[in-house]
């Protein structure tokens, strides 16, 4: 039985950042007269004019950490207050583009549609068989949640009246607070990822014919300011909040030290708390592999990058610890992780999985022909018990296009790869892929005893889907048997590679 499940979020809850007023005008209103301003507890660390350099820094950071091919979309950041007119969707696209020039980390998909239900739209596209399109992994949502006009109001004036002359002087100064909340959700499950959020505020002080905008990350001591003219209004302030929010969101989503691009010191306790949450959320194997990749990128470790501890790795860790003021015990701990996280050297490449076992040549192929291996976590003839979950494995000898089908014990047949969650049918040679694919929000659970089957078909060249097999994924197809599917694929491509996995459920 194909069972849809929600995937738990990977990121522990992070800290929401708040932007506050930086003193940027002469004799400003006292910040303590506004509730939002009163939250500032630490002095500003650095003042900048915009986030262009920070976005470029994020591009370099994502490149160094090997983050790429994260597909995102958004319907924009609507204005819940009804008072701010700004093209927030275009601002988001521009920010994503600036962060991806070299790293290619983010791909923004815009379907130019007025449909609010993005998931239903993507499912319709997949049902039509458009598998060559990239579909978003994540979507950004949020809103301009607050615009408190005249939150801080200061007026001063005076005059003198004489029988022959009247003189008067006055000055008005008004500060307004604008806030933006942003979150990231999974496109497939519509689940908002815990901790991957940004909640920032900005105070704009207006006086005379010009305006000044000042902001500060109250918890971490980062500040910025900018000048606004009459025609710009709140637009530039909103752009600053969107760009800052994107830096924070992408950093939390990818687990990269985004605070470096905001010139925040690594000793800041808030950033250390964020890093601790990432560290605690990693598996021991992932921690070891990250250390291996970091030290290999520094030229201090030449062993295998496999997530397995070794004497060679302990020696390299001890050497790094001794050179960087840490306790040189050769152990992997949070202090080592945080120090490596802050290091500028890029990570070494994460090697692709190796071929697990020799794969027999396809019957119809000659030398170098495509072949596939299909088995499971319980071997080539698996026996599962009720309420267990299937974990099949498929592997190709050459780069190619792959289609896989599942038949349950009632005879119903559905396509399980590619699907709406993993829409690209292309698979790299040697990649050991699980079925259902890793991190997929659906699983195959055995709830009745009997015999079931998985069949996969692969080809080096484009593999057209036979007409009788076109239809929505993960739903029963109008076919009578697995043999009918095999015959359709063989007719379209006589040199196709194929494999079957017979499953017994007890």
Write a structural description.
There is one protein chain. The chain has 506 residues and is of the alpha+beta class. It has three domains: 11-268, 3-Layer(aba) Sandwich (Rossmann fold), CATH 3.40.50; 282-342, no CATH class; 372-505, Immunoglobulin-like. Helices cover 23% and strands 28% of the residues. It contains nine helices and 18 strands. The protein has helices spanning 52-64, 88-98, 118-127, 235-254, 269-281, 284-297, 311-323, 334-342, 482-492, and strands at 2-4, 70-74, 106-108, 138-162, 165-186, 192-207, 210-217, 222-228, 372-376, 383-384, 392-396, 400-407, 413-417, 426-427, 433-435, 442-444, 450-459, 497-505. The protein has a seven-stranded mixed β-sheet with strand order 3-2-4-5-6-7-8, with helices on one face. Strands 10, 12, 13, 14, 17 and 18 form a six-stranded mixed β-sheet that branches. A hairpin with a 4-residue loop joins strand 7 (210-217) and strand 8. Helix 1 (52-64) packs parallel to helix 4 (235-254) and helix 6 packs across helix 8. The longest helix has 20 residues, at 235-254. The radius of gyration is 29 Å and the shape is globular.
Could you write a compact summary of the structure shown?
The chain is of the alpha+beta class. It has helices at 52-64, 88-98, 118-127, 235-254, 269-281, 284-297, 311-323, 334-342, 482-492, and strands at 2-4, 70-74, 106-108, 138-162, 165-186, 192-207, 210-217, 222-228, 372-376, 383-384, 392-396, 400-407, 413-417, 426-427, 433-435, 442-444, 450-459, 497-505.
